[in-house]
Amino acid sequence: MGNRFQEVLQGRPVILGHRGSPEKAQENSIQSFLLALEDGADGVELDVHGTSDGELIVFHDENLSDGRYIREHTYPEVKIASQRQKVVVHRLEKVFRALAGKGFINIELKSKGLEAKVLQFARDLLPPDTFLFSSFIPDTVAECRKLAADVPAILIRVEPEALDSELECIRRIEASGVAYHHSQIDDKLAAFFKENKVPLFTWTVNDIEEAKRLEALDISGIITDRPAELMKYFKGVK
User: Fold this and answer.
1) How much is the pTM?
2) Tell me: the pLDDT tens digits for 14-29?
3) If DSSP codes are grouped into helix, strand and coil, which group holds residue 93?
4) Domain tally for the chain?
5) Domain of residue 123, CATH code
6) With b meaning 16 or more CB within 10 Å and e meaning fewer, what string describes 45-62?
7) How far apart are CA 115 and CA 142, in angstroms?
8) In which domain, by residue range, is 135 found?
């Protein structure tokens, strides 16, 4: 998973702020990311889209609230629309520069075709072993692994299919791990992936009791809206 990523595990799950610290600042904003890191999170998770003119931006949904699809509009058009809606939309480059060296960055790619450009930005702007990729799109995970065998790329699943089929897919695309919503993870699923040496990640865990349950299942990483609360718990139990 990268030496520095392994170092922070220290017998507990890696804790990543979900789009930063979204209960304290607008999600996917630099302010939100910095707050999560200030609260002690090991890193943050962010979402990347591409605009029609080739810009990479950090935003979760594929469209703005007025219905404009990001991929169909230029960055200046998206910027104007977002300002009218009082929504922050940062260029990925700006976010990387603000966060470089401050923690791990889980870069979720929301569509195909962004892999090479995002990787180049990450290589140029972030320290080695401080970033990883994730995506719901198996082909995107496979492409990330093809382009950068040294960088982890996690497959995100909506819900588990037959576990043998899940494992076949993970191995075929050479994913570095798999992530499910915490409600989908039970003893059987966790034991299966542990036996097959596939790191297991989860989102969005905002309850300490649920975090305890998942910790007992040897989860490798947790994404949360409340990084301060989870870090307080995990630091207390070390």
Assistant:
1) 0.95
2) 999 999 999 999 999 9
3) helix
4) 1
5) 3.20.20.190
6) bbbbbbbeeebbbbbeee
7) 10
8) 3-237
